[in-house]
Amino acid sequence: SSPHLRSYEDRAQKHNNPAARALLYLMAKKKTNLSVSVDVTRKKDFLAIIDAVGPYVCLIKTHIDILEDYDPSIIEDLQALSNEHEFLIFEDRKFADIGNTVALQYSSGVYKIASWAHITNAHAVPGPSIIAGLASVGLPLERGLILLAEMSSKGALATGAYTEDAVRMARARRDFVVGFIAQHRMETIGARDTDSVGDEDFLILSPGVGLDAKGDAMGQQYRTPAEVVTDCGCDVIIVGRGIIGTGRDIDVGEVQRQAQRYQVAGWEAYERRLSR
Ligand code: 5FU
Fold it and tell me: In what pathway does it function (predicted)?
């Protein structure tokens, strides 16, 4: 049956990729399908938010390059919080170049993403070579890759045949590609032969989730956890401003309350989906 009708626990036991297995295991253990997107520019806020939401999330999503006061000690602090609160780390890097270049961007430079991010993501636009390039770095480190099959923003070009081709690219590299950024499940997409799909288990990570707002002034579009998880069968809800707010000053107590609220909403939506 389609993976979204099975429990996270069951899927954890059967998944072949270590990062996906660890994520599904944590989701079941902590009863959370929430990923918080920590889109702030100051180290102090970044770490305070992660410490506050840590107990409620399975995955912390970062844009490491927006930190203004980045230094390598931030990664050590992030890893300590990841161990303390038990969450994985997803750098939302959206790689989009030829294989050789993305391998360098992933392994090297200022951020050395592969050394600390359990999961990262890539656009499908360069074709299969982008997966080969990232896999050359990530597979030996037991990392997982998410492909962007759809986007949450208004007018996104990743639709139709593009989305289908992204799914085909992923199917050819199931050792490393563990899922999609998407708004729906992808199993029903494209030509499928029973052999290749039998044990296919792609995680669907969905950004564009909010309980209060419907969108922002720059084309973001929000759906509720119930729409995303129960109705559309997605596995992980990614929430940024719905939890961390939109102001410059961070209210850590409020951030924690919102994280708890989204955790409950996401988990209830998952339980409803399984009981259908
Ligand atoms: F791939 C995508 C996408 O399609 N939509 C997104 O919003 C990624 N995102 C990211 O999720 C985006 O870069 C933000 O980091 C986050 C959503 O933040 P929000 O504050 O919940 O809108």
Answer: Pyrimidine metabolism; UMP biosynthesis via de novo pathway; UMP from orotate: step 2/2
Residues with beta carbon inside 6 Å of ligand 1? 37, 39, 63, 92, 148, 151-153, 181, 207-208, 220, 238-242
Task: Mark 87-122 as b/e (b = at least 16 C-beta within 10 Å).
Answer: bbbbbbbebebebeebbebbbeeebebbebbbbbbb
CB 121 within 8 A of CB 92: yes
What is the position in ligand 1's atom list of the atom closest to the CA of 63? Answer: 15
Query: Which residue from 238, 241, 244, 255 has its CB within 8 A of the most atoms of ligand 1, so it is best to mutate?
Result: 238
Annotated binding site: 39, 61, 152, 220, 240-241
The residue whose C-alpha atom lies closest to atom 13 belonging to ligand 1 is 92
276 residues of the chain, pLDDT tens digit each: 789 999 999 999 999 999 999 999 999 999 999 999 999 999 999 999 999 999 999 999 999 999 999 999 999 999 999 999 999 999 999 999 999 999 999 999 999 999 999 999 999 999 999 999 999 999 999 999 999 999 999 999 999 999 999 999 999 999 999 999 999 999 988 655 544 566 799 999 999 999 999 999 999 999 999 999 999 999 999 999 999 999 999 999 999 999 999 999 999 999 999 998
Instruction: Tell me the catalytic residues.
Output: 92, 94, 97
Quote the DSSP letter at residue 6.
S
Residue 61 φ then ψ, to 5°: -100, 130
Q: Specify the residue with its C-alpha closest to ligand 1, atom 4.
A: 151
